[in-house]
């Protein structure tokens, strides 16, 4: 038992180290391909240099002179806070909407689902531009400023619009999956049994269906994180938020980029492994 | 096939795409790729009445840009590039990952676990960011002009856009094939003595090609989104021309470029940005509709087959 756990731990640590090395190898590619010069020598030097720096966590700089860690950490937590808030907001809203659909619009679910699926194709940038223009239009025509549209300095931070535009794609995606899974689950035998026992639909959903579909939802967690990370880049760019992604775009540096990826990777890696252990607690 | 052509969603989506591309090609063939331009509008007595940019519904239906070019015409001229680029990238993404997964899908479970473990961290590269980093030095215009001819830049951009998605897509395809490979009828086919290649082409492929068609549609949408992202960040397809002092301009009239370049007019002359965005959205919606119609059609076919 203990031995098995130890082997598993070693395997996980190994996987993490491979992941970090992969980030270094791929993240350094801009050095190799800079202006298509195929600078192999510089590339391998960079990989070696970066590996030493990252595994010892020392001498990390951007622009060659400023110390990175102090500049990066605050922005990283800011980005993660935005990401987390948007995720949970999307999750809660998606559950509310799916309950609404399941309980009251069960007959129309095919139309609603295909509408969601089609509307999901709209590029996320469009939502951001539309939201900005909507707020500005209200300001122009009614003279009232609802929310900040673009972050300008630390006093005027845009909060609501970035959150909405970050969570909207996820919200649609989650709603679609949850509704589909719930209806799949409602076709099963035990639901008929539960119904004949006289349980209320709400009770059935909360106690049985949600528990049974939660595994499937966790399976989509990786896709959701992947979608959110690429939207986050655009959200920070469009709303000028002082997060880690925008910091990357402003200070183009291989070291910073690799370190950023590792920073985002680490918490989710731990989370995934914990989920794996929970699913398969051997 | 007839039942597919009768679906409203399919008709709408397909006709929008076909009309856009045809008009765009015709513009090149018949009109030499020129775009309608009205420089200034004078009154009858010769005094100046209007100057560009014209708002929508005035001189042109969709307004004009800063130099009096018709926005609708510009967008149509750009359509073949945008839709073409996205089609090519999505097609090659599918082709390469199908080929890769063909060679990789029968590896032992242990090796597959390693492949999965390696591909997991890759999903933490924000696609937009890595593409931005890799493309920036190559497609940007410098004081001495572009360092590389147009075709090098275009091929390079294609390669990057394709490579960015390959690992995740390949793993997804491998998982699909392994799922099919575990089915009972494959086992009986092996027992009956079918060779691996025979089984692959006769039994596995027919199960999968429908899913591939749908995946192609999803890839199309993903590439489209990536292209808009890059456009907003001023990485334009074929190269960004940065003059000194002048605003950056694009080599083609490709849509993502139009969005990125005109973003600064968003508050003053908003239609210059919104017309390309509108067409981008319409393209995305058309593809999503085609995809939805196809998946409904496949399900319908499946039902008919089972009820026979």
TrEMBL record, chain A:
Q: Which UniProt keywords apply?
A: Cell membrane, Membrane, Transmembrane, Transmembrane helix, Transport
Q: Which InterPro entries match?
A: MetI-like (IPR000515), MetI-like_sf (IPR035906)
Q: Which GO terms describe its cellular component?
A: plasma membrane
- Which family does the UniProt entry place this protein in? Belongs to the binding-protein-dependent transport system permease family.
The species this protein belongs to is Mesobacillus subterraneus
Q: What is its main location?
A: membrane
Task: Write down the superkingdom of origin.
Answer: Bacteria
UniProt-annotated location(s) = Cell membrane
Name of the protein: ABC transporter permease subunit
TrEMBL record, chain B:
Spell out where the chain crosses the membrane. 12-30, 81-104, 124-143, 155-174, 220-242, 271-291
Compartments, record wording: Membrane
Name assigned to this protein: Peptide ABC transporter permease
For this record, the Gene Ontology CC terms, alphabetical, are: membrane
Keyword Transmembrane on entry: yes
Q: How does the entry describe its membrane topology?
A: Multi-pass membrane protein
User: Any idea where the ABC transmembrane type-1 domain is?
Assistant: 79-291
Database matches in InterPro entries: MetI-like (IPR000515), MetI-like_sf (IPR035906)
What organism is the protein native to? Answer: Mesobacillus subterraneus
Which top-rank group of organisms is this from? Answer: Bacteria
Keyword annotations for this protein, in alphabetical order, are: Membrane, Transmembrane, Transmembrane helix, Transport
- What CDD domains does the database record attribute to this sequence? TM_PBP2
Give GO terms for biological process.
transmembrane transport
